[in-house]
Design goal:
Layout (H helix, E strand, L loop, with lengths): L5 H25 L9 E7 L3 E2 L6 E2 L3 E8 L3 H31 L8 H17 L4 H62 L5 H17 L2 E10 L2 E15 L2 E5 L2 E2 L2 E5 L15 E5 L15 H11 L7 E7 L3 E5 L15 E5 L2 E12 L5 E8 L5 H7 L3 E4 L8 H24 L33 H9 L2 E2 L10 E4 L7 E2 L9 E3 L22 E3 L1 H5 L7 E2 L11 H7 L16 H38 L3 H35 L3
Helix pairs in contact: 1-13, 2-4, 2-5, 2-6, 2-12, 3-4, 3-11, 4-5, 4-6
Length: 664
Amino acid sequence: MSSTFFGLTIAASGLNTSQAQINTTANNISNVNTNGYSRQVVNTVASSALRCYQSWGTTGTGVEAESVTQRRDLYYDEKYWNNSSALGFYEKKEYYMKQIENYFNETNLDTGFTTIYTKMFNAMSTLQGNPGDMTVRKQFTSTAKQLTEYFNQLSTKLDDLQSSINDEIKTAVDDINSMAEKIAILNKQINIIEQGGGHANELRDQRAVLVDKLSKIVDVSATEKKVKNSNNPDMETGATYYQVYINGQILVDTYEHNTLAVVSRELDQNHNQSDIDGLYEIVWTVDGNKFNATPSGNGGELKAMFEVRDGNNNENLHGVVTATGSDTITVSYPTITDINELNMPTRGSLDVNNKEYTYNSFSYETDEKGNITNITFYLNQGLTVEEQGNLISKKLQAGDDVDYMGIPYYQNQMNLFLRNFCEAFNKIEIGAEVYDANGNAVTDINDIKINEVYDAAGNVIDDQEKLNSIISTMGVDLNGDLMNAFFIAKDKIDLNVEHQMRADITSSTIYSAGDVDDDTRKYESYYLLTAKNVSIAKESDRDAGAFATTTKGNYTDGVDAAHLVEDLQKLQGTTKLFRGGGGDSFLQCIYADVTVDTQECNIFTKNFTNISTTITEQRMSVSGVDEDEEALDLMKFQNAYNLASKCISVFAEIYDRLILQTGV
């Protein structure tokens, strides 16, 4: 049978529970604007019934505040993380693409491509009418130089953006490591509290905020499992295993966390010809294995950085290994057969049979039309006999496939346009060519002698009449001297060295660079010319007379001739130079590419922002603090507290009557 004073105990339990509920509600109201705070609730249960020897058998003993827990739904957390990763991906990509769009946008009509390109050909038209006027010639060479400087500056801007993204990648990696460490520390603190029977709600909120931030940088998933007592599997210890995965790879394993590190690519690990030196790769610190920063999923901001920094639109070289040596790999059936489209670096990396190799140079063989038939890479590492055999018939790729039109793509497109344009321009300027025994163009007319020079097919010219006919079609400057290349490529190491790119590329073996120990190597192809190093020849820049407007056969001292200028003017829009169009359509093609990608990013950013708003509202409906709801709860718990207090007052009167007034 229960005690006479048992009712006071029951009322006291209600008083204490209501007090706990009021305190928790006050805590919720206080944190209504706290970022990441989850609404807390007091979980109450009826106290264990007391057995009594009466007809009703048991009697209630009041209420217990079992725990104070946070309201949170993992389903909405996962939806938020997935959407946050997608939103971060498109926001970051849009930010970069708008910068690239601004680079190509002709906001300044005085320095835009169309204006400069048109000015150059307008100056050329003036030159056609008065080819002997040095002032007119100087005006043309100045506009031509302005065109090359436009591409130099544009390429430099893209380099700077690539460098900036590279630095942001390092910052992102530092942020990931910092958050991983904090999550591991919080896991330990949470388990210490909850193993003692409590609930670490505030610490759990801090951990959730970190995972939320992490989800914008990379794809995130998290799992939490309760720890069972090893001696009694049905008994829970209060601790949990908490694991965080990024891009499918484990980052945090309860108290332990893995860290990432950035490693600069070596010079022979570059992927694209235009890449700056020192681009970062991300690896796991524990074993040095490469971290997959571009997963098939959303990928977050980090994936966007890599796609814009390394995106080549999958236009890197692919081929099939058909021959190997102790330190060479030869591929045939290359996906790139036009020399002007070559975009791999002089030194770089190869992927064959899921293994990386690095090369220090390469050479390629051409057919009678100058198309590439096979390419040989000269490796930094040796190949065993077994490796040589295993590589045959395997697919090879140079660099890395990144299916996005990023900075390398736009650099390559500029290179392709300039190579086609400069090659066509120089061919008209130079006219017919003859070569020495090594296939190098003869540039001095005094060295052009019968039986000592060869035609483009490699046949020795043994007929004086034929030789005279060839000479008559060679371009000459105002002084009657043979014309060299007007557009040249500056050497990367020695800027005073100008590459004329006049080697005979038909049915030949061409190397990616020269060799000081072997001057017979052909390497002067338009592969050497890029948007970074294109310029006009110093001789033409210093002396406006060093520009051909006519050929040797039409040249007469003191007589102006300009029939070559007529052919040059066709390059403005008539001659197909870029994507099936003329040179004047270059910017339209490029701007169409960048605008489409920018608009796509903008649309997806808006869509995922709207989705984020919806998910956040759903998430907050569960875990957020609603001021109106908390006000109602406060009134409800206050009333319960008052009623419990009234019960105590009633029992006090009963006990007063029973003890002090009964029997008196």
